[in-house]
Inverse folding.
């Protein structure tokens, strides 16, 4: 029984550590989103958006989005950019549509 508890504890700690680890690409995109928002998007909200974008996009589209945001690469496809609005709304960021 003691071994079972130890194994269970180690598995839970491993899961916690893995889930709390950060992805440098997500962090870089989040920093860029926060920096480009002129203070309107907090770092926490920016990280939420970056995580949502990575989860939503294919690997190829994420690479294009990351390059666009961080490395000033080419503008990704309209489908990729269209995913930004739902990600922002899902993170509770209000979008001002007044033009």
């Amino acid at each position: 029984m003691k071994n079972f508890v130890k194994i269970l504890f180690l598995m839970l700690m491993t899961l916690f550590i893995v889930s709390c680890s950060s992805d440098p690409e997500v962090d870089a995109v989040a920093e860029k989103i926060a920096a480009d928002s002129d203070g309107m998007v907090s770092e926490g909200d920016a990280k939420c958006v970056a995580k949502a974008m990575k989860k939503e996009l294919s690997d190829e589209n994420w690479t294009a989005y990351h390059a666009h945001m961080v490395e000033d690469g080419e503008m990704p496809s309209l489908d990729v950019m269209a995913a930004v609005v739902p990600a922002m709304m899902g993170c509770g960021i209000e979008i001002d549509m007044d033009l």
